[in-house]
Amino acid sequence: MSVANNESVAEIKARNKELIKEVLAVYPEKTAKRRAKHLNVHDAGKSDCGVKSNIKSIPGVMTIRGCAYAGSKGVVWGPIKDMIHISHGPVGCGQYSWAARRNYYIGTTGIDTFVTMQFTSDFQEKDIVFGGDKKLAKIMDEIQELFPLNNGITVQSECPIGLIGDDIEAVSKSKSKEFGGKTIVPVRCEGFRGVSQSLGHHIANDAVRDYVFDKMDPNRPAPFESSPYDVAIIGDYNIGGDAWSSRILLEEMGLRVIAQWSGDGSLAELENTPLAKLNVLHCYRSMNYISRHMEEKFGVPWCEYNFFGPSKIAESLRKIASFFDDKIKEGAERVIAKYQPLMEAVIAKYRPRLEGKTVMLYVGGLRPRHVIGAYEDLGMEVVGTGYEFAHNDDYQRTAQHYVKDGTLIYDDVTGYEFEKFVEKVQPDLVGSGIKEKYVFQKMGVPFRQMHSWDYSGPYHGYDGFAIFARDMDMAINAPVWKMAKAPWKDDSNSKLLAAE
Amino acid sequence: MTQNADHVLDHFDLFRGPEYQEMLANKKKMFENPRDEAEVERVREWAKTEEYKELNFKREALTVNPAKACQPLGAVFVAVGFEKTIPFVHGSQGCVAYYRSHFSRHFKEPTSCVSSSMTEDAAVFGGLNNMIDGLANTLSMYKPKMIAVSTTCMAEVIGDDLNAFIKTSREKGSIPEDYPVPFAHTPAFVGSHITGYDNAMKGIISYFWDGRAGTVEKLERKPNDSINFLGGFDGYTVGNLREIKRIFGEFGIKYTILGDNSDVWDTPTDGEYRMYDGGTTIEETLEAVNAKATISMQEYCTEKTLPLIAEHGQEVVALNHPISVKGTDNFLMTLARISGKEIPESLARERGRLVDAIADSSAHIHGKKFAIYGDPDLCYGLAEFLLELGAEPTTVLATNGGKAWEKKMQALFDSSPFGKNCKVYPGKDLWHMRSLLFTDPVDFLIGNTYGKYLERDTGTPLIRIGFPIFDRHHKHRYPVWGYQGGMNVLVTILDKIFDTIDLATNVPAKTDYSFDIIR
Ligand code: SF4
Ligand code: SF4
Questions:
Q1: How confident is the model at residue B396 (pLDDT cuts 50, 70, 90)?
Q2: Of A240, A335, B136, B342, which residue is most buried, by most CB within 10 angstroms?
Q3: What tens digit of pLDDT does each residue of B375-394 get?
Q4: Directed axis angle between helix A284-298 and helix A392-401, to 10°?
Q5: Which residues of chain A neighbour B21 with C-beta distances below 8 Å?
Q6: Per-residue confidence (pLDDT) for residue B185, from 0 to 100
Q7: Model pLDDT for residues A210-264, shown as the tens digit of each residue
Q8: Which residues, including other chains, have CB under 8 Å from residue A480's CB and lie 6 or more apart?
């Protein structure tokens, strides 16, 4: 189906440049100028992708981005399972994000675990007019009474909070004192701050620093005996169990995972992370801030890794092992060897069905580059990619380690651009979010949701790669796509019919 | 190693393997600082008690698991029901990402909607420039015939004035002078998504009937004999509106559905993406002022819209999400009365078939207790139907139900011997419902997808009827209105009842004596 396969890189580049010109033509002049900076064709050897990023979305263009609240409550804090996260403000934000991210966890929901619940202050007009601090204080009392086994509370600010001048910090402080030093974290992640989810990640990271780390008793007894092999998984939200299928590999190589941030995570794990010997960071975008902080403050080094697809997994296991002694290095080799037959079997089964197929991606802040290796392990090629909320350091990583010459790059893509790009490039698969899924399926283009794994997963680790490979095959080779055109309207078919 | 290339294990099998189970148990024990198991058990049991329920019902500030969403969602629902119309939500952009996702998860369809993407500077200076630029961009990119504006919290809190902003946008040339931009303020801290439906629908109707925000003459009504129809916020809008069209067709009545989103949320997969499809045209909307009457299927979705229409001299009728035989009887008799046409024999036949089905099956439903939650009108319609089936809608809860609804529900209970022990709970949430399911147990629960948590925690089998339904597919394609809709609801309820009996009677040599082949 793809046209890319038979074209030279020069031709592809020319076509992509033409394509960008074409989509820009739809905009009013001022907008076209602004959007032009976010679209590019990648030139191999360049240090970044040549696009501007992390700047305001343009009104009215149908950006796919979310907001800071989504970055804090939805991504960073929401999965911490033994704390109660109050969506503070009107009912909507918490309602739409209720349990939608598939952060798996183990626990007794509603009793000692609260991830898939929606706690909200459900602001009414009077709260807007008179302020919501009193209500917030009362909410905390009621939480203590009805959910006595919660280990902490966070206040996830929605838009109105910052606009009406509420002092959630003061309320949190006084309630924390009243409840004997309970961890209560005010988070200023109002949706209008910043330009996307990204600032919400940052604010949430800072809140961990200020209200978890800085509030800890430095003389508290050690929660467990330290080992030289203690590591923490940072930036894995355990979507469909990703962090679990990652953890198992780290443990098999001889490391001990003392914390997960934040999928299936707990307050105790956050608190204990400074004891790690190494922080391993998967989603750089959403948790680099706290990793840097732990390095500076507690001397915990961190290293980025990539657990998508066997090539990147092996590379990452070795990289992580390089921080440790021979025992761990041998452990890494042992793990790689152990899973090799499984990986060979998976690739033998799926690669022949996927070889040469092309993919266009548009995801958040990590996956638009991180999953490329996994596709390549299956013989597939990523011909276009872009981020909702990457910064330039993400585009640098993308350019230097991931994308090929001529790849179409689109930052903060608009609905219109994405549709046109796919229409023209005709990839065999699009990987993006729920808002995009049905647009492309209607066009007859196979699609996988790459935020939620389309209700499948895990995709991380060796166990996850088997699922990833099967899912991509299932998407692309589903018989349904051959049926999109009615036989009497399908040119190739109708000719056949006529010939018969 | 549990994973296997021949038979790839999904999350539900993979993590049950012994390696993972051991790993997770170890994680908990070593690093999570878990609560004592006996203590967890104690609290779990306590949360089932009357004492807990009383504490729970004393809550004044905290809301847990509400069954309602915010106003702009309703506004988006309305806007996409008009031909080639794009909803434009003025305020911060995150909300719009949420509305689009929410609808797409329910309908499994794309939902187009734009935001004016206000950020911190707009919080200080107001969002006028966002509106001006946004309208121009939307118009040139997506070429809508109309842009329907509503607001998020942010714009409401800082007090942006839509009418003034849109006017200024025209003056600045961002949209042509006569380009239609109806609008409605939809503050999320008032009411719920059904309020948003009401405000947005009223906004569009008053815009077109009352002189396009002061730019043209108001329409003068020249009465004709057609009937306007308002569905209200409805998760079954695709199936329902098609059923309604069929019913109007059987009658041969001229009608206008105001806000017909049944096509845009049910487009084919045939190689073409239709951003717009179907919908009420502007011409139809203008013409609708002349109708003889307007019927709303959901009173509590149209509390402001109907009075506006009535002011224009039309008769207005508000129903409560008719599902029952009586509800549809009333709907059809209303149509007959207004149109002066007789109820067609074909519909009388359908009625007979529904009654026939009820007669065949009611023994399995009679006397069973149900808890229901959802939007106020849906709750009413379901409760009314259950009473007809001889069941007891013991607990009826609407987070967005108010005093008037409470009274109306009570009157319904009072009208039937089966309503004697039934109670209505306005303004409560699903954590209240959880307590009630423990202290006042019922046989079945009816609600949306989120009811699955209640089903898990309390063991009450869930019958999925409501919005949103995320975890079952295609339900929105089947009507729940009309006799045919009643039939669908009946079958949905029966299926769950039979499945539940079968599941409870399938242990060999223990409970299999009731595992009947004929029921
Ligand atoms: S900020 Fe307000 S309008 Fe936006 S989703 Fe939240 S409640 Fe709704
Ligand atoms: S992996 Fe991507 S989508 Fe997920 S939290 Fe990180 S940046 Fe967001």
A1: very high
A2: A240
A3: 999 999 999 999 999 999 99
A4: 100
A5: none
A6: 98
A7: 999 999 988 889 999 999 999 999 999 999 999 999 999 999 999 999 999 999 9
A8: B269
3-state helix, strand and coil shares in percent for chain B, rounded to the nearest 5? 50, 10, 40
Digit-coded pLDDT (tens) for B345-366: 999 999 999 999 999 999 999 9
**CB-nearest partner of A124 from B20, B142, B189:** B189
Mean pLDDT of chain B: 97
Q: State in Å: Cα A450 to ligand 1 middle.
A: 25
Query: Which of chain A's residues have a Cβ under 8 Å away from the Cβ of B99?
Result: 96
Per-residue model confidence (pLDDT) at position A4: 47
Residue indicated by tokens 């002078």? B177
**Residue written as tokens 């209560």?**
A184
Contact B34 A112 (CB under 8 A): yes
Integer Cα distance of A484 and A465 in angstroms: 29
H/E stretch holding A268 reads: helix A267-272
Q: Which residues contact A305 (CB under 8 A, 6 or more apart)?
A: A280, A281, A282, A316, A319, A320
Instruction: Please say if A101 is a catalytic residue.
Output: yes
Between helix B482-504 and helix B345-365 the angle, nearest 10°, is 20
Report the gap between the CA of A435 and the closest CA in chain B (Å). Answer: 6
Which residue's alpha carbon is at the smallest distance from atom 7 of ligand 1? Answer: A92
Give the model's confidence band at A492: pLDDT under 50 very low, under 70 low, under 90 confident, else very high: low
Provide the pairing of β-strand A358-361 with A429-432: parallel
CB within 8 A of A289, min separation 6: which ones? A201, A202, A205, A206
pLDDT over 50 (residue A1): no
Q: What is the distance in angstroms between the Cα of A266 and the nearest Cα belonging to chain B?
A: 6
pLDDT band at A498 (very low <50, low <70, confident <90, very high): very low
Q: Please determine, for residue A499, whether its predicted confidence score (pLDDT) is greater than 50.
A: no
Token representation of residue B379: 């709750």
* Chain B residues near residue A92 by CB distance under 8 angstroms: 69-73, 95, 98, 153, 188
B153 is catalytic: yes
Contact A70 B94 (CB under 8 A): yes
What is the C-alpha separation between A141 and A77, in angstroms, rounded? 21
Tell me how crowded residue A393 is: count the other CB atoms within 10 A of its CB.
14
Q: Which of A185, A177, A204 is nearest to A193 (CA)?
A: A204
Residues 6+ apart with CB under 8 A from B370: B386, B391, B392, B393, B394, B395, B442, B443, B444, B445, B446
If one counts every other C-beta atom within 10 angstroms of the C-beta of residue B264, the result is 26
Section A88-102 average pLDDT: 97
pLDDT in tens, B210-241: 999 999 999 999 999 999 999 999 999 999 99
- Which DSSP state fits A217? -
Classify A461 in phi/psi space as left (phi over 0), alpha (psi -120 to 50) or beta. Answer: left
pLDDT of residue A493: 55
**pLDDT, tens digit (0-9, with 9 covering 90-100), for B127-165:** 999 999 999 999 999 999 999 999 999 999 999 999 999
DSSP for B69-131, please give it.
--HHHHHHHHHTTBTTEEEEEES-HHHHHHHHHHHHHHHSS----EE----HHHHHH-SHHHH
CA trace torsion B376, B382, B383, B387 (10° rounding)? 160
Q: Which of residues 382-421 of A touch B (CB under 8 A)?
A: 414-416, 419
Helix, strand, coil in percent for chain A, rounding step 5: 50, 15, 40
Ramachandran region of residue B390, left (φ > 0), alpha (ψ -120 to 50) or beta? left
Nearest to A143 among B20, B62, B192 (CB): B62
Which ipTM did the prediction report?
0.97
Distance A434 CA to ligand 1 centre (A): 19
Q: Which amino acid is at A484?
A: A
